[in-house]
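Severity: low
Component: inverse-folding endpoint
Summary: output formatting inconsistent between runs
Steps to reproduce: submit the following structure tokens with default settings.
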């Protein structure tokens, strides 16, 4: 039955697919518009916090407006979020010095600033040309950085098994499960044996994640409309993906980012 249904759907819908942007393109176009229109003074942020670079606002927004915008973290942590990321996400899993790594969706570069000093060659992959423009403006021609504009679902063609780590923060939270799995397949090929993957993603099983899911249901019911909607993901699904691809799950962390989850995994030696 499923083969017959798939064949029918392909015949009747193949001509219509080009008229509708796919999920990856919808997300990329939305963030591209965001980056094009971004102005540091347009955001209501925590008292004493200064928005300097694109992305600073994502951990500086006034927590009294919506606790979900600060990942469920208290203001005292949000004020020192870079240090918090280093202590709770990077240092426990990444080497202090790596030969080659990749960041998916660097945006304005808040995580890039932490990764660059510890990585000799860092590949920065973003589906938004405007985001990459902000990134280049911030880091210029800093040695060891390589910039790539992607289609939102395909990683650059690099040598297989060549990367010490691949990381994405605040990116996979907007992906639905199929797109997450599509990326993890590619990550598995690019990591060297013993290489580490760190993916921050949406978790609908947390109280804040469930609230976000409910907010996104009605406006995206017929088809996804909002580029920044949260993906319907959770740790058991992510662990299933990693296991199916032969990757070792090191952590399914739901504490570091209370609203979401962080998957840490390793390619077997």
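Observed output (run 2 of 3):
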């Amino acid at each position: 039955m499923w083969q017959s249904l798939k064949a029918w759907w392909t015949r009747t819908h193949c001509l219509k697919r080009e008229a509708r942007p796919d999920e990856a393109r919808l997300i990329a176009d939305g963030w591209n518009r965001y980056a094009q229109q971004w102005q540091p003074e347009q955001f209501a942020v925590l008292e004493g916090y200064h928005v300097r670079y694109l992305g600073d606002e994502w951990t500086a927004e006034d927590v009294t407006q919506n606790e979900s915008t600060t990942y469920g973290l208290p203001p005292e942590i949000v004020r020192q979020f870079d240090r918090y990321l280093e202590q709770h996400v990077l240092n426990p899993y990444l080497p202090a010095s790596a030969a080659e790594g990749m960041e998916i969706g660097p945006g304005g570069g808040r995580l890039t600033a932490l990764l660059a000093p510890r990585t000799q060659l860092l590949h920065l992959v973003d589906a938004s040309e405007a985001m990459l423009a902000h990134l280049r403006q911030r880091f210029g021609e800093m040695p060891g950085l390589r910039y790539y504009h992607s289609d939102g679902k395909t990683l650059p063609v690099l040598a297989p098994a060549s990367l010490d780590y691949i990381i994405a923060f605040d990116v996979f939270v907007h992906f639905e499960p199929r797109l997450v799995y599509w990326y993890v397949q590619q990550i598995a090929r690019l990591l060297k044996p013993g290489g580490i993957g760190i993916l921050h993603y949406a978790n609908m099983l947390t109280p804040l994640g469930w609230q976000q899911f409910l907010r996104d249901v009605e406006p995206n019911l017929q088809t996804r409309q909002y580029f920044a909607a949260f993906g319907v993901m959770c740790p058991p699904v992510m662990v299933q993906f990693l296991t199916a691809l032969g990757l070792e799950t090191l952590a399914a962390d739901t504490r570091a980012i209370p609203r979401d989850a962080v998957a840490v995994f390793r390619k077997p030696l």
